[in-house]
Amino acid sequence: MDTQPRIIRLHTNDNVVVARSEFDAGKTFESELVTNEAIPAGHKIATTKIDKNQPVRKYDQIIGFASCDIASGEHVHEHNMTYADFERDYQFGVGRNDATIVPDEERRTFQGIRRANGAAATRNYIGVISTVNCSATVAKKVADFFNSETLSEYPNVDGVVALTHGWGCGTGTREGQLMVQRCVGGFARHPNFAGMVLIGLGCEVLQMKLLTDRENLVVSDTLQTYIIQDAGARAALEQGIDSVKQMLPIANQATREPIPAIELTLALECGGSDAYSGISANPGLGAAADLLIKEGGTACLAETPEIYGAEHLLTRRAVSKEVGEKLVERVRWWEEYTRKNDTVLNNNPAPGNKAGGLTTILEKSLGAVAKGGTTTLMDVYEYAMPITSKGFVFMDTPGYDPVSVTGMVAGGANIACFSTGRGSVFGSKPTPCIKLATNSEMYNRMSEDMDVNCGVVVDGDASIDELGEIIFEKILATASGELSQSELFGLGDLEFLPWAAGATL
Question: What is the pTM for the complete model shown?
Answer without folding.
Answer: 0.95
